[in-house]
Amino acid sequence: MKHYSRTLPWPALRGGLIVSCQAEGDSPFNSPEGVALFARAAVLGGAVGIRSEGLDKTRRILTEVTVPVIGLLKSSFADGTVCITGTLAGVRALAEMSCAIVAIDGTLRTRENLNGPDFIRQVKTEVGCLVMADIATVAEGEACVAAGADCLSTTLSGYTPETAHLNAAGPDLALVRELAARVRVPVFAEGRLNTPADAAAARQAGAWAVVAGSAITRPTLITEWYVQALQAGPAA
Ligand SMILES: CC(=O)N[C@H](C=O)[C@@H](O)[C@H](O)[C@H](O)COP(=O)(O)O
Q1: Which structural domains are found in the chain, ordered by start?
Q2: Per-residue pLDDT tens for 18-74?
Q3: Measured between alpha carbons, how far is 17 from 128 in angstroms, rounded to an integer?
Q4: Ligand 1 centroid vs 171 CA: distance in angstroms?
Q5: The pTM is what?
Q6: pLDDT band at 8 (very low <50, low <70, confident <90, very high)
Q7: C-alpha span between 124 and 149 (Å, rounded)
Q8: Whose CA is nearest to atom 12 of ligand 1?
Q9: Which SS3 state, helix, strand or coil, does residue 111 take?
Q10: Considering 27, 28, 96, 145, which has the largest number of Cβ atoms within 10 A of its Cβ?
């Protein structure tokens, strides 16, 4: 196992904002250059960390910022729901390019014949990088910590079959609150934190730090929010 020498990122991230700089599909920002511009803008605005998807994009972002970068690769489970870094090769590639932390799907869904906690156990043994377990429930979070996850993020609440009903309900602050009370590793609040007030509420709920993406780095989606609000018409 290779040993990744690094300063632990937890103090630098504490109480701060991590901006998720991702772009997909026909987004005009869907390139290493595009997301790197977002990362630079985020750091200028005071972001203490960046979350980044994809090997080429993450490699580029790492050359542009000095704050800790949380790297991940996205794929899909058979039912079409999102899987966050589900292969050992992917974890290794992100760790070797010096991501401070690698985000891994910590849900109980099976990838490479392992569920999230078992996969994290394998990653900690065979790769040895810092792991952020992306989870959707308290039980998943506790199982990932027992498996060796270095921190948790509520990323997947609302995006797994059993939590899909929460998607329309705004950020899952109840999950942040419960995890923060139960585990001894940093808990990051992530997912649908679309306003500064949401971010502050997540800190109040016990989040170590807050991750925001869409509301900062998905301008097409933000535009749609405005357009839909206007289509609802004027109040009677
Ligand atoms: C579910 C999933 O695929 N989440 C992804 C995880 O990396 C990203 O698409 C999100 O943008 C990120 O989690 C930040 O969340 P929000 O964009 O809601 O602020």
Answers
A1: 17-231 (3.20.20.70)
A2: 999 999 999 999 999 999 999 999 999 999 999 999 999 999 999 999 999 999 999
A3: 26
A4: 11
A5: 0.96
A6: very high
A7: 8
A8: 213
A9: strand
A10: 145
